[in-house]
Design a protein that fits this description.
The complex is a heterodimer of chains A (about 500) and B (about 120). Chain A has about 500 residues and is mainly α. Chain A contains 21 helices and two strands. Chain A has a domain of about 210 residues. Chain A has a two-stranded antiparallel sheet. In chain A, helix 3 runs antiparallel to helix 19, helix 11 runs antiparallel to helix 14 and helix 12 runs antiparallel to helix 13. By secondary structure, chain B is mostly helical. Chain B is built from three helices and no strands. In chain B, about 30% of the residues are buried. Classes of the chains: A mainly alpha (about 500), B mainly alpha (about 120). The interface between A and B is large, with 41 and 36 residues.
Chain lengths: ~500, ~120
Protein backbone atom coordinates (compact mmCIF):
# COMPACT_ATOMS: atom_id res chain seq x y z
CA UNK A 1 0.00 0.00 0.00
CA UNK A 2 2.95 2.30 0.58
CA UNK A 3 3.38 2.39 -3.14
CA UNK A 4 0.85 5.25 -2.88
CA UNK A 5 3.61 7.44 -1.48
CA UNK A 6 5.75 7.02 -4.55
CA UNK A 7 2.99 7.66 -7.08
CA UNK A 8 2.83 11.47 -6.70
CA UNK A 9 6.50 11.58 -7.71
CA UNK A 10 6.54 8.76 -10.24
CA UNK A 11 3.45 9.85 -12.19
CA UNK A 12 4.66 13.34 -13.15
CA UNK A 13 8.21 12.11 -13.79
CA UNK A 14 7.04 9.39 -16.18
CA UNK A 15 4.53 11.77 -17.79
CA UNK A 16 7.45 14.15 -18.39
CA UNK A 17 9.56 11.36 -19.90
CA UNK A 18 6.79 10.21 -22.22
CA UNK A 19 6.02 13.82 -23.22
CA UNK A 20 9.67 14.27 -24.16
CA UNK A 21 9.36 11.28 -26.48
CA UNK A 22 6.52 13.12 -28.21
CA UNK A 23 8.78 16.15 -28.78
CA UNK A 24 7.16 18.83 -30.98
CA UNK A 25 3.90 16.92 -31.25
CA UNK A 26 1.53 19.39 -29.64
CA UNK A 27 -1.72 17.40 -29.58
CA UNK A 28 -0.02 14.32 -28.06
CA UNK A 29 1.68 16.45 -25.40
CA UNK A 30 -1.57 18.22 -24.57
CA UNK A 31 -3.33 14.92 -24.02
CA UNK A 32 -0.42 13.62 -21.95
CA UNK A 33 -0.59 16.83 -19.96
CA UNK A 34 -4.24 16.24 -19.11
CA UNK A 35 -3.71 12.53 -18.50
CA UNK A 36 -0.64 12.93 -16.27
CA UNK A 37 -2.13 15.66 -14.13
CA UNK A 38 -5.46 13.81 -13.76
CA UNK A 39 -3.56 10.72 -12.65
CA UNK A 40 -1.62 12.86 -10.14
CA UNK A 41 -4.88 14.29 -8.84
CA UNK A 42 -6.36 10.80 -8.37
CA UNK A 43 -3.15 9.56 -6.71
CA UNK A 44 -3.22 12.57 -4.36
CA UNK A 45 -6.83 11.86 -3.43
CA UNK A 46 -6.06 8.17 -2.81
CA UNK A 47 -3.06 9.11 -0.67
CA UNK A 48 -5.10 11.55 1.41
CA UNK A 49 -7.85 8.98 2.00
CA UNK A 50 -5.30 6.36 2.95
CA UNK A 51 -3.43 8.64 5.35
CA UNK A 52 -6.71 9.82 6.87
CA UNK A 53 -7.81 6.31 7.72
CA UNK A 54 -4.46 4.59 8.39
CA UNK A 55 -2.35 7.33 9.95
CA UNK A 56 1.03 8.65 8.83
CA UNK A 57 2.73 6.56 6.15
CA UNK A 58 6.45 6.26 5.53
CA UNK A 59 8.61 4.53 2.93
CA UNK A 60 12.32 3.85 3.29
CA UNK A 61 13.78 4.16 -0.19
CA UNK A 62 15.93 1.15 -1.05
CA UNK A 63 14.89 -0.41 2.28
CA UNK A 64 17.73 1.31 4.10
CA UNK A 65 16.61 1.57 7.74
CA UNK A 66 15.38 4.92 8.93
CA UNK A 67 18.04 7.39 9.95
CA UNK A 68 20.47 6.20 7.26
CA UNK A 69 18.47 6.06 4.03
CA UNK A 70 16.14 8.54 2.41
CA UNK A 71 12.64 8.49 3.83
CA UNK A 72 9.40 9.56 2.20
CA UNK A 73 6.71 10.49 4.70
CA UNK A 74 3.08 11.43 4.14
CA UNK A 75 1.30 12.96 7.10
CA UNK A 76 -2.06 14.65 6.61
CA UNK A 77 -0.52 18.07 5.89
CA UNK A 78 1.73 16.63 3.18
CA UNK A 79 -1.14 14.58 1.71
CA UNK A 80 -3.44 17.62 1.61
CA UNK A 81 -0.75 19.62 -0.17
CA UNK A 82 -0.10 16.83 -2.70
CA UNK A 83 -3.81 16.61 -3.45
CA UNK A 84 -4.04 20.37 -3.94
CA UNK A 85 -0.94 20.31 -6.16
CA UNK A 86 -2.52 17.63 -8.35
CA UNK A 87 -5.79 19.55 -8.50
CA UNK A 88 -4.03 22.74 -9.53
CA UNK A 89 -1.86 20.87 -12.01
CA UNK A 90 -4.93 19.45 -13.71
CA UNK A 91 -6.74 22.80 -13.92
CA UNK A 92 -3.64 24.59 -15.19
CA UNK A 93 -3.15 21.86 -17.80
CA UNK A 94 -6.72 22.43 -19.05
CA UNK A 95 -6.17 26.19 -19.09
CA UNK A 96 -2.82 25.74 -20.88
CA UNK A 97 -4.51 23.76 -23.66
CA UNK A 98 -6.52 26.87 -24.44
CA UNK A 99 -3.88 29.51 -23.86
CA UNK A 100 -0.30 28.35 -24.48
CA UNK A 101 0.94 29.27 -27.95
CA UNK A 102 2.34 26.70 -30.35
CA UNK A 103 5.92 27.93 -30.03
CA UNK A 104 6.09 27.48 -26.29
CA UNK A 105 4.35 24.13 -26.65
CA UNK A 106 7.00 23.00 -29.13
CA UNK A 107 9.82 23.87 -26.79
CA UNK A 108 8.73 21.62 -24.00
CA UNK A 109 6.05 23.46 -22.03
CA UNK A 110 4.21 20.30 -20.95
CA UNK A 111 7.26 18.21 -19.92
CA UNK A 112 8.36 21.16 -17.78
CA UNK A 113 4.92 21.36 -16.20
CA UNK A 114 5.19 17.71 -15.17
CA UNK A 115 8.72 18.12 -13.82
CA UNK A 116 7.64 21.13 -11.78
CA UNK A 117 4.80 19.09 -10.27
CA UNK A 118 7.20 16.22 -9.52
CA UNK A 119 9.52 18.61 -7.70
CA UNK A 120 6.65 20.14 -5.74
CA UNK A 121 5.24 16.75 -4.69
CA UNK A 122 8.71 15.46 -3.82
CA UNK A 123 9.30 18.47 -1.58
CA UNK A 124 5.99 17.81 0.18
CA UNK A 125 6.67 14.12 0.74
CA UNK A 126 10.33 13.92 1.65
CA UNK A 127 11.47 13.27 5.19
CA UNK A 128 15.12 14.05 4.60
CA UNK A 129 16.75 17.45 4.66
CA UNK A 130 19.15 16.97 1.76
CA UNK A 131 16.48 15.27 -0.31
CA UNK A 132 14.33 18.35 0.28
CA UNK A 133 17.14 20.42 -1.22
CA UNK A 134 17.21 18.17 -4.27
CA UNK A 135 13.44 18.46 -4.81
CA UNK A 136 13.65 22.20 -4.42
CA UNK A 137 16.25 22.27 -7.17
CA UNK A 138 14.11 20.05 -9.43
CA UNK A 139 11.24 22.45 -8.92
CA UNK A 140 13.43 25.52 -9.39
CA UNK A 141 15.10 24.46 -12.61
CA UNK A 142 11.70 23.65 -14.15
CA UNK A 143 10.36 27.01 -12.99
CA UNK A 144 13.43 28.83 -14.37
CA UNK A 145 12.77 27.44 -17.82
CA UNK A 146 9.00 27.95 -17.65
CA UNK A 147 9.58 31.55 -16.62
CA UNK A 148 12.00 32.35 -19.43
CA UNK A 149 10.41 30.13 -22.11
CA UNK A 150 9.48 32.40 -24.97
CA UNK A 151 12.46 34.70 -24.51
CA UNK A 152 10.65 38.05 -24.44
CA UNK A 153 12.73 40.87 -23.00
CA UNK A 154 10.53 41.30 -19.91
CA UNK A 155 10.63 37.57 -19.26
CA UNK A 156 14.42 37.47 -19.42
CA UNK A 157 14.80 40.47 -17.13
CA UNK A 158 12.35 38.93 -14.67
CA UNK A 159 14.13 35.60 -14.93
CA UNK A 160 17.51 37.14 -14.01
CA UNK A 161 16.11 38.40 -10.72
CA UNK A 162 14.15 35.23 -10.03
CA UNK A 163 17.08 32.93 -10.80
CA UNK A 164 19.62 34.97 -8.81
CA UNK A 165 17.59 35.25 -5.63
CA UNK A 166 16.45 31.65 -5.73
CA UNK A 167 20.02 30.42 -6.21
CA UNK A 168 21.17 32.52 -3.27
CA UNK A 169 18.40 30.98 -1.25
CA UNK A 170 19.50 27.49 -2.31
CA UNK A 171 23.08 28.23 -1.29
CA UNK A 172 21.90 29.40 2.13
CA UNK A 173 19.77 26.28 2.43
CA UNK A 174 22.81 24.14 1.64
CA UNK A 175 24.86 26.06 4.21
CA UNK A 176 22.20 25.34 6.82
CA UNK A 177 22.19 21.66 5.82
CA UNK A 178 25.96 21.56 6.29
CA UNK A 179 25.75 23.10 9.75
CA UNK A 180 22.94 20.76 10.80
CA UNK A 181 24.93 17.77 9.60
CA UNK A 182 28.07 18.97 11.32
CA UNK A 183 26.25 19.53 14.59
CA UNK A 184 24.12 16.38 14.68
CA UNK A 185 25.49 13.88 12.15
CA UNK A 186 22.10 13.16 10.63
CA UNK A 187 19.79 14.67 8.03
CA UNK A 188 16.64 12.64 8.64
CA UNK A 189 13.97 15.06 9.86
CA UNK A 190 12.49 12.66 12.38
CA UNK A 191 15.92 11.79 13.74
CA UNK A 192 16.82 15.49 13.89
CA UNK A 193 13.76 16.26 16.01
CA UNK A 194 15.37 14.79 19.12
CA UNK A 195 18.98 15.66 18.26
CA UNK A 196 18.37 19.36 17.60
CA UNK A 197 16.81 19.72 21.04
CA UNK A 198 20.00 18.40 22.58
CA UNK A 199 22.09 21.18 21.01
CA UNK A 200 23.09 24.41 22.78
CA UNK A 201 20.71 27.23 21.88
CA UNK A 202 23.30 29.23 19.95
CA UNK A 203 24.17 26.36 17.66
CA UNK A 204 20.51 25.43 17.05
CA UNK A 205 19.60 29.05 16.34
CA UNK A 206 22.16 29.41 13.54
CA UNK A 207 20.63 26.83 11.14
CA UNK A 208 17.15 27.96 12.23
CA UNK A 209 17.86 31.49 11.04
CA UNK A 210 19.52 30.24 7.85
CA UNK A 211 16.45 28.13 7.12
CA UNK A 212 14.24 31.11 7.87
CA UNK A 213 16.10 33.22 5.30
CA UNK A 214 16.39 30.43 2.72
CA UNK A 215 12.74 29.39 2.84
CA UNK A 216 11.72 32.99 3.48
CA UNK A 217 13.14 33.95 0.08
CA UNK A 218 11.20 31.12 -1.55
CA UNK A 219 8.01 31.94 0.35
CA UNK A 220 8.47 35.68 -0.38
CA UNK A 221 8.20 37.02 3.17
CA UNK A 222 9.20 40.57 4.15
CA UNK A 223 11.93 41.76 3.38
CA UNK A 224 12.93 38.97 1.00
CA UNK A 225 10.12 39.17 -1.56
CA UNK A 226 11.50 41.57 -4.17
CA UNK A 227 12.07 38.90 -6.80
CA UNK A 228 8.36 38.05 -6.88
CA UNK A 229 6.72 41.24 -8.15
CA UNK A 230 9.63 41.67 -10.57
CA UNK A 231 9.09 38.32 -12.27
CA UNK A 232 5.64 36.80 -11.74
CA UNK A 233 3.85 39.02 -14.20
CA UNK A 234 6.18 38.34 -17.12
CA UNK A 235 5.38 34.77 -18.32
CA UNK A 236 2.07 33.62 -19.87
CA UNK A 237 -0.73 33.78 -17.33
CA UNK A 238 -1.04 29.98 -17.06
CA UNK A 239 2.56 29.91 -15.79
CA UNK A 240 1.98 32.86 -13.44
CA UNK A 241 -1.07 31.08 -12.04
CA UNK A 242 0.85 27.84 -11.51
CA UNK A 243 3.69 29.67 -9.75
CA UNK A 244 1.22 31.66 -7.65
CA UNK A 245 -0.56 28.46 -6.69
CA UNK A 246 2.37 26.27 -5.75
CA UNK A 247 5.86 27.74 -5.55
CA UNK A 248 5.59 30.20 -2.67
CA UNK A 249 3.40 27.67 -0.84
CA UNK A 250 6.22 25.12 -1.00
CA UNK A 251 8.34 27.70 0.81
CA UNK A 252 5.61 28.14 3.42
CA UNK A 253 5.27 24.36 3.71
CA UNK A 254 9.01 24.04 4.36
CA UNK A 255 8.86 26.81 6.98
CA UNK A 256 5.98 25.06 8.74
CA UNK A 257 7.80 21.72 8.62
CA UNK A 258 11.05 23.18 9.99
CA UNK A 259 9.50 25.25 12.73
CA UNK A 260 7.07 22.59 13.93
CA UNK A 261 9.36 19.56 13.77
CA UNK A 262 12.87 20.88 14.33
CA UNK A 263 12.88 24.33 15.90
CA UNK A 264 9.58 24.43 17.80
CA UNK A 265 11.04 25.45 21.16
CA UNK A 266 12.47 28.90 20.79
CA UNK A 267 9.97 31.71 21.56
CA UNK A 268 12.40 34.29 20.18
CA UNK A 269 12.11 32.77 16.70
CA UNK A 270 8.34 32.85 16.78
CA UNK A 271 8.24 36.46 17.97
CA UNK A 272 10.44 37.26 15.00
CA UNK A 273 8.08 35.33 12.71
CA UNK A 274 5.12 37.25 14.12
CA UNK A 275 6.76 40.60 13.36
CA UNK A 276 7.70 39.36 9.88
CA UNK A 277 4.15 38.23 9.21
CA UNK A 278 2.71 41.64 10.10
CA UNK A 279 5.23 43.45 7.90
CA UNK A 280 4.66 40.98 5.05
CA UNK A 281 0.90 41.52 5.14
CA UNK A 282 1.16 45.30 5.22
CA UNK A 283 3.87 45.81 2.59
CA UNK A 284 2.24 43.30 0.27
CA UNK A 285 -1.16 44.90 0.33
CA UNK A 286 0.19 48.45 0.09
CA UNK A 287 2.25 47.41 -2.93
CA UNK A 288 -0.86 45.88 -4.47
CA UNK A 289 -2.97 49.01 -4.07
CA UNK A 290 -0.36 51.08 -5.87
CA UNK A 291 -0.42 48.92 -9.02
CA UNK A 292 -2.42 49.47 -12.17
CA UNK A 293 -1.50 46.28 -13.99
CA UNK A 294 -3.70 43.35 -12.95
CA UNK A 295 -0.98 40.73 -12.77
CA UNK A 296 1.40 43.00 -10.82
CA UNK A 297 -1.41 43.81 -8.43
CA UNK A 298 -2.14 40.13 -7.91
CA UNK A 299 1.58 39.35 -7.49
CA UNK A 300 1.81 41.78 -4.59
CA UNK A 301 -1.27 40.14 -3.13
CA UNK A 302 0.53 36.80 -3.02
CA UNK A 303 3.04 38.40 -0.65
CA UNK A 304 0.35 39.87 1.54
CA UNK A 305 -1.40 36.51 1.82
CA UNK A 306 1.86 34.74 2.73
CA UNK A 307 1.87 37.01 5.77
CA UNK A 308 -1.35 35.43 7.04
CA UNK A 309 0.09 31.93 6.69
CA UNK A 310 3.24 32.89 8.59
CA UNK A 311 1.05 34.56 11.22
CA UNK A 312 -0.61 31.19 11.96
CA UNK A 313 2.80 29.53 12.26
CA UNK A 314 4.05 32.24 14.61
CA UNK A 315 0.94 31.98 16.79
CA UNK A 316 1.47 28.22 16.96
CA UNK A 317 4.91 28.73 18.43
CA UNK A 318 3.78 31.34 20.95
CA UNK A 319 0.81 29.35 22.19
CA UNK A 320 1.21 28.05 25.69
CA UNK A 321 -1.59 25.47 25.59
CA UNK A 322 -2.14 22.68 23.07
CA UNK A 323 -5.60 23.59 21.72
CA UNK A 324 -4.59 27.15 20.85
CA UNK A 325 -1.47 25.92 19.07
CA UNK A 326 -3.49 23.39 17.10
CA UNK A 327 -6.09 26.02 16.19
CA UNK A 328 -3.39 28.38 14.88
CA UNK A 329 -1.73 25.70 12.77
CA UNK A 330 -5.06 24.40 11.47
CA UNK A 331 -5.89 27.95 10.43
CA UNK A 332 -2.60 28.15 8.53
CA UNK A 333 -3.28 24.88 6.71
CA UNK A 334 -6.83 25.90 5.82
CA UNK A 335 -5.55 29.31 4.75
CA UNK A 336 -2.96 27.80 2.41
CA UNK A 337 -5.59 25.67 0.66
CA UNK A 338 -8.07 28.55 0.47
CA UNK A 339 -5.43 30.91 -0.84
CA UNK A 340 -4.25 28.52 -3.55
CA UNK A 341 -7.84 28.16 -4.78
CA UNK A 342 -8.72 31.86 -4.69
CA UNK A 343 -5.46 33.36 -5.90
CA UNK A 344 -5.00 30.98 -8.83
CA UNK A 345 -8.49 31.76 -10.00
CA UNK A 346 -7.85 35.50 -10.00
CA UNK A 347 -4.82 34.99 -12.21
CA UNK A 348 -6.81 32.79 -14.57
CA UNK A 349 -9.63 35.35 -14.82
CA UNK A 350 -7.13 38.13 -15.49
CA UNK A 351 -5.75 35.96 -18.29
CA UNK A 352 -9.19 35.66 -19.89
CA UNK A 353 -9.77 39.41 -19.55
CA UNK A 354 -6.45 40.09 -21.23
CA UNK A 355 -7.24 37.57 -23.94
CA UNK A 356 -10.47 39.45 -24.66
CA UNK A 357 -9.08 42.97 -24.46
CA UNK A 358 -5.41 42.47 -25.28
CA UNK A 359 -4.11 44.24 -22.18
CA UNK A 360 -3.53 43.83 -18.44
CA UNK A 361 -3.54 47.58 -17.74
CA UNK A 362 -6.55 48.62 -15.68
CA UNK A 363 -6.98 52.04 -17.37
CA UNK A 364 -7.36 50.30 -20.76
CA UNK A 365 -9.66 47.55 -19.54
CA UNK A 366 -13.34 47.96 -18.82
CA UNK A 367 -16.87 47.03 -19.73
CA UNK A 368 -16.36 43.34 -19.02
CA UNK A 369 -19.37 43.28 -16.70
CA UNK A 370 -21.80 44.19 -19.44
CA UNK A 371 -20.07 42.01 -22.05
CA UNK A 372 -19.39 38.91 -19.95
CA UNK A 373 -21.52 38.97 -16.80
CA UNK A 374 -20.74 35.32 -16.11
CA UNK A 375 -17.01 35.98 -16.03
CA UNK A 376 -17.55 39.01 -13.81
CA UNK A 377 -19.54 36.88 -11.37
CA UNK A 378 -16.81 34.23 -11.24
CA UNK A 379 -14.19 36.93 -10.60
CA UNK A 380 -16.33 38.38 -7.83
CA UNK A 381 -16.57 35.05 -6.01
CA UNK A 382 -12.79 34.62 -5.90
CA UNK A 383 -12.10 38.28 -5.13
CA UNK A 384 -14.54 38.36 -2.22
CA UNK A 385 -13.21 35.02 -1.01
CA UNK A 386 -9.68 36.44 -1.00
CA UNK A 387 -10.86 39.50 0.91
CA UNK A 388 -12.58 37.22 3.42
CA UNK A 389 -16.30 37.85 3.05
CA UNK A 390 -18.72 35.22 4.36
CA UNK A 391 -19.78 32.63 3.36
CA UNK A 392 -16.73 32.08 1.15
CA UNK A 393 -13.61 30.15 2.06
CA UNK A 394 -11.52 33.20 2.96
CA UNK A 395 -13.90 34.18 5.73
CA UNK A 396 -13.40 30.95 7.66
CA UNK A 397 -9.65 30.96 7.02
CA UNK A 398 -9.29 34.46 8.45
CA UNK A 399 -11.83 33.88 11.21
CA UNK A 400 -9.88 30.95 12.61
CA UNK A 401 -6.58 32.85 12.42
CA UNK A 402 -8.13 35.76 14.28
CA UNK A 403 -9.69 33.45 16.86
CA UNK A 404 -6.25 31.97 17.47
CA UNK A 405 -4.77 35.46 17.80
CA UNK A 406 -7.46 36.56 20.26
CA UNK A 407 -7.06 33.46 22.35
CA UNK A 408 -3.34 34.15 22.66
CA UNK A 409 -4.03 37.83 23.39
CA UNK A 410 -1.90 38.97 20.48
CA UNK A 411 -4.17 41.91 19.78
CA UNK A 412 -1.68 43.86 17.64
CA UNK A 413 -1.41 41.14 15.00
CA UNK A 414 -5.19 40.70 14.99
CA UNK A 415 -5.64 44.42 14.34
CA UNK A 416 -3.08 44.29 11.51
CA UNK A 417 -4.75 41.23 9.96
CA UNK A 418 -8.18 42.90 10.02
CA UNK A 419 -6.89 46.17 8.58
CA UNK A 420 -5.03 44.35 5.80
CA UNK A 421 -8.22 42.44 5.08
CA UNK A 422 -10.03 45.73 4.43
CA UNK A 423 -7.22 46.95 2.19
CA UNK A 424 -7.42 43.66 0.30
CA UNK A 425 -11.06 44.32 -0.33
CA UNK A 426 -10.16 47.82 -1.50
CA UNK A 427 -7.64 46.55 -4.04
CA UNK A 428 -10.08 43.89 -5.27
CA UNK A 429 -12.60 46.68 -5.77
CA UNK A 430 -9.96 48.44 -7.81
CA UNK A 431 -9.80 45.52 -10.25
CA UNK A 432 -13.58 45.19 -10.19
CA UNK A 433 -14.22 48.83 -11.14
CA UNK A 434 -11.25 49.02 -13.50
CA UNK A 435 -11.80 45.88 -15.51
CA UNK A 436 -15.47 45.03 -15.09
CA UNK A 437 -17.65 47.91 -13.95
CA UNK A 438 -16.49 51.04 -15.74
CA UNK A 439 -17.29 51.33 -19.45
CA UNK A 440 -14.54 50.24 -21.84
CA UNK A 441 -12.38 53.17 -22.99
CA UNK A 442 -13.39 52.67 -26.62
CA UNK A 443 -17.07 51.83 -25.99
CA UNK A 444 -18.39 48.44 -24.95
CA UNK A 445 -17.44 45.45 -27.06
CA UNK A 446 -14.94 47.55 -28.99
CA UNK A 447 -11.54 46.03 -29.59
CA UNK A 448 -12.57 42.57 -28.45
CA UNK A 449 -10.21 39.96 -29.79
CA UNK A 450 -11.99 37.10 -31.47
CA UNK A 451 -11.95 33.98 -29.34
CA UNK A 452 -13.47 30.72 -30.49
CA UNK A 453 -16.14 29.19 -28.22
CA UNK A 454 -14.17 25.94 -27.82
CA UNK A 455 -11.08 27.77 -26.65
CA UNK A 456 -13.13 30.06 -24.42
CA UNK A 457 -14.64 26.93 -22.84
CA UNK A 458 -11.16 25.55 -22.08
CA UNK A 459 -10.23 28.82 -20.40
CA UNK A 460 -13.49 29.13 -18.52
CA UNK A 461 -13.78 25.55 -17.22
CA UNK A 462 -10.94 25.81 -14.63
CA UNK A 463 -12.27 29.20 -13.52
CA UNK A 464 -15.72 27.73 -12.88
CA UNK A 465 -14.27 24.76 -10.99
CA UNK A 466 -12.11 27.01 -8.80
CA UNK A 467 -14.96 29.42 -8.06
CA UNK A 468 -17.10 26.43 -7.10
CA UNK A 469 -14.25 25.16 -4.91
CA UNK A 470 -14.11 28.51 -3.10
CA UNK A 471 -17.85 28.30 -2.43
CA UNK A 472 -17.67 24.66 -1.31
CA UNK A 473 -14.68 25.34 0.97
CA UNK A 474 -16.76 28.15 2.48
CA UNK A 475 -20.20 26.57 2.80
CA UNK A 476 -18.77 23.19 3.81
CA UNK A 477 -15.97 24.61 5.93
CA UNK A 478 -16.73 22.25 8.82
CA UNK A 479 -15.35 18.97 7.43
CA UNK A 480 -12.43 20.69 5.72
CA UNK A 481 -11.50 22.51 8.89
CA UNK A 482 -11.76 19.30 10.91
CA UNK A 483 -9.28 17.73 8.52
CA UNK A 484 -6.95 20.73 8.96
CA UNK A 485 -7.25 20.35 12.73
CA UNK A 486 -6.24 16.71 12.50
CA UNK A 487 -3.30 17.63 10.27
CA UNK A 488 -2.32 20.33 12.77
CA UNK A 489 -2.52 17.86 15.65
CA UNK A 490 -0.05 15.62 13.84
CA UNK A 491 2.30 18.57 13.43
CA UNK A 492 1.85 19.74 17.01
CA UNK A 493 2.59 16.37 18.53
CA UNK A 494 5.17 14.65 16.30
CA UNK A 495 5.09 11.32 18.17
CA UNK A 496 3.14 9.64 15.39
CA UNK A 497 5.47 11.11 12.75
CA UNK A 498 8.52 9.85 14.63
CA UNK A 499 7.01 6.40 15.09
CA UNK A 500 6.06 6.15 11.42
CA UNK A 501 9.60 7.02 10.31
CA UNK A 502 11.85 5.53 12.95
CA UNK A 503 9.70 2.57 13.94
CA UNK A 504 9.45 1.60 17.58
CA UNK A 505 13.17 2.00 18.18
CA UNK A 506 12.77 5.30 19.97
CA UNK B 1 43.64 21.93 7.91
CA UNK B 2 40.11 22.76 9.06
CA UNK B 3 41.24 26.26 10.01
CA UNK B 4 42.75 26.84 6.60
CA UNK B 5 39.61 25.57 4.87
CA UNK B 6 37.44 27.76 7.08
CA UNK B 7 39.30 30.78 5.74
CA UNK B 8 38.99 29.51 2.19
CA UNK B 9 35.24 29.04 2.63
CA UNK B 10 34.88 32.50 4.14
CA UNK B 11 36.86 33.92 1.23
CA UNK B 12 34.61 32.16 -1.28
CA UNK B 13 31.42 33.48 0.36
CA UNK B 14 32.86 36.98 0.62
CA UNK B 15 34.04 37.14 -2.97
CA UNK B 16 30.71 35.67 -4.13
CA UNK B 17 28.80 38.43 -2.35
CA UNK B 18 31.20 41.06 -3.70
CA UNK B 19 30.80 39.82 -7.28
CA UNK B 20 27.01 39.60 -7.00
CA UNK B 21 26.82 43.18 -5.85
CA UNK B 22 28.56 44.41 -9.02
CA UNK B 23 26.47 45.61 -11.95
CA UNK B 24 27.82 43.19 -14.53
CA UNK B 25 25.80 40.12 -15.46
CA UNK B 26 28.93 38.02 -16.00
CA UNK B 27 30.21 38.82 -12.53
CA UNK B 28 26.79 37.93 -11.15
CA UNK B 29 26.97 34.45 -12.64
CA UNK B 30 30.55 33.94 -11.43
CA UNK B 31 29.42 35.06 -7.99
CA UNK B 32 26.61 32.51 -7.97
CA UNK B 33 29.04 29.76 -8.96
CA UNK B 34 31.48 30.75 -6.20
CA UNK B 35 28.66 30.80 -3.66
CA UNK B 36 27.74 27.21 -4.42
CA UNK B 37 31.44 26.22 -4.30
CA UNK B 38 31.63 27.78 -0.86
CA UNK B 39 28.58 25.86 0.33
CA UNK B 40 29.96 22.59 -1.07
CA UNK B 41 33.32 23.07 0.57
CA UNK B 42 31.56 23.87 3.83
CA UNK B 43 29.74 20.51 3.76
CA UNK B 44 33.04 18.80 3.03
CA UNK B 45 34.85 20.47 5.90
CA UNK B 46 32.09 20.31 8.47
CA UNK B 47 31.74 16.56 7.97
CA UNK B 48 35.15 16.25 9.61
CA UNK B 49 38.44 15.68 7.80
CA UNK B 50 40.34 12.55 8.62
CA UNK B 51 43.23 10.81 6.96
CA UNK B 52 42.92 7.64 8.96
CA UNK B 53 40.95 5.07 7.01
CA UNK B 54 38.50 4.68 4.16
CA UNK B 55 35.01 3.61 5.29
CA UNK B 56 35.29 0.08 3.94
CA UNK B 57 33.77 -2.75 5.95
CA UNK B 58 36.20 -5.58 6.50
CA UNK B 59 35.09 -9.08 5.66
CA UNK B 60 33.01 -10.59 8.43
CA UNK B 61 32.31 -7.20 10.11
CA UNK B 62 29.01 -5.32 10.10
CA UNK B 63 30.46 -1.83 10.59
CA UNK B 64 33.77 -0.32 9.51
CA UNK B 65 36.36 -0.17 12.27
CA UNK B 66 36.63 3.37 13.71
CA UNK B 67 38.15 5.84 13.10
CA UNK B 68 37.17 6.16 9.46
CA UNK B 69 36.38 8.99 7.04
CA UNK B 70 32.69 9.94 6.84
CA UNK B 71 31.51 9.02 3.32
CA UNK B 72 28.21 10.91 3.41
CA UNK B 73 29.49 14.51 2.90
CA UNK B 74 31.17 13.41 -0.32
CA UNK B 75 27.94 11.89 -1.60
CA UNK B 76 26.06 15.06 -0.71
CA UNK B 77 28.64 17.28 -2.37
CA UNK B 78 28.65 15.16 -5.50
CA UNK B 79 24.90 15.69 -5.82
CA UNK B 80 25.21 19.39 -5.04
CA UNK B 81 28.02 19.85 -7.57
CA UNK B 82 25.98 18.23 -10.33
CA UNK B 83 22.99 20.41 -9.50
CA UNK B 84 25.05 23.59 -9.37
CA UNK B 85 26.73 22.63 -12.64
CA UNK B 86 23.33 22.33 -14.35
CA UNK B 87 22.00 25.51 -12.82
CA UNK B 88 25.14 27.46 -13.73
CA UNK B 89 24.87 26.22 -17.31
CA UNK B 90 21.30 27.51 -17.39
CA UNK B 91 22.38 30.82 -15.88
CA UNK B 92 25.09 31.27 -18.53
CA UNK B 93 22.59 30.69 -21.34
CA UNK B 94 20.14 33.07 -19.67
CA UNK B 95 22.95 35.64 -19.45
CA UNK B 96 23.70 35.32 -23.12
CA UNK B 97 20.04 35.57 -24.19
CA UNK B 98 19.47 38.54 -21.90
CA UNK B 99 22.54 40.26 -23.29
CA UNK B 100 21.13 39.79 -26.80
CA UNK B 101 17.68 41.04 -25.83
CA UNK B 102 18.75 44.03 -23.74
CA UNK B 103 21.94 44.88 -25.62
CA UNK B 104 23.88 45.42 -22.41
CA UNK B 105 25.20 43.43 -19.49
CA UNK B 106 24.56 46.26 -17.04
CA UNK B 107 22.05 45.12 -14.42
CA UNK B 108 21.00 48.73 -13.81
CA UNK B 109 19.51 48.79 -17.28
CA UNK B 110 17.19 45.87 -16.58
CA UNK B 111 14.54 47.66 -14.64
CA UNK B 112 11.54 47.45 -16.93
CA UNK B 113 9.89 44.74 -14.86
CA UNK B 114 10.63 46.34 -11.48
CA UNK B 115 7.85 47.86 -9.49
Amino acid sequence: MNFLLLLPILIPLSAAAVSLLAWRRGPVQRRLGLLGTSALFVAGAALLLHVRSHGIQAVQIGSWPAPYGITLVADLFAAIMVLVAGFMGLLIAVYSCGSIDARREQFGYYPLLHILLAGVCGAFLTGDLFNLYVWFEVMLIASFVLLSLGGERAQLEGAIKYVTLNLISSALFLTAVAIVYGATGTLNLADLHAKIQGLPRGIALLPAMLFLVAFGIKAAIFPLFFWLPASYHTPPVAVSALFAALLTKVGVYALVRMFTLLFAEDAWTFNLLLAISALTMVTGVLGAIAQNEVRRLLSFHIISQIGYMVMGLALFGLASDGPAAVLALAATIFYIVHNIVAKTNLFLVSGIAARLRGTYELPNLGGLYSDRPGLAFLFLISALSLAGLPPLSGFFAKLSLIQAGLRLQQYEIVAVALAVSLLTLLSMTKIWTGAFWKPAPGGNGAGDSAISPGRYGLLLAPVIVLAAAAVILGLGAGPFFDLSVRAAEQLHDPTEYLRAVLGDLK
Amino acid sequence: METLLAFVIGGLYASAVYLMLRRSLVKLVIGLALLSHGANLLIFTIGGLTRTRAPIIAEGDLVPAPPFADPLPQALILTAIVISFGVTAFAVVLLQRTYQAVGSDDLDRMKTTDT
